Amino acid sequence: xxxxxxxxxxxxxxxxxxxxxxxxxxxxxxxxHGLQLGDDLELFFxxxxxxxxxxxxxxxxxxxxxxxxxxKSET
Length: 75
What we know:
The chain has 75 residues and is of the alpha+beta class. It has one domain (15-74): Pemi-like Protein 1, Chain: D. The protein is 29% helix and 21% strand. The chain has helices spanning 27-32, 56-65, 69-74, and strands spanning 15-17, 20-22, 41-45, 49-53. Strands 1-2 form a two-stranded antiparallel ribbon. Strands 3-4 form a two-stranded antiparallel sheet. A hairpin with a 3-residue loop joins strand 3 and strand 4. The longest helix has 10 residues, at 56-65. The model has no long low-confidence stretch (mean pLDDT 83).
């Protein structure tokens, strides 16, 4: 997981989205990461949740190697 700095803080509610639930993201986060509706994100969680844009190049390289980056990080 890359180093990160706290860019902001916001309080959000868990909301109903169709038959699921979700949490909205602050506009400042979306703008800072160039995110738009439909973009993919990675979530890392234990007692804290970290969200970052999905690095599609990293995924492509892992697929080409026949590996699974998520599985490697768990070992």
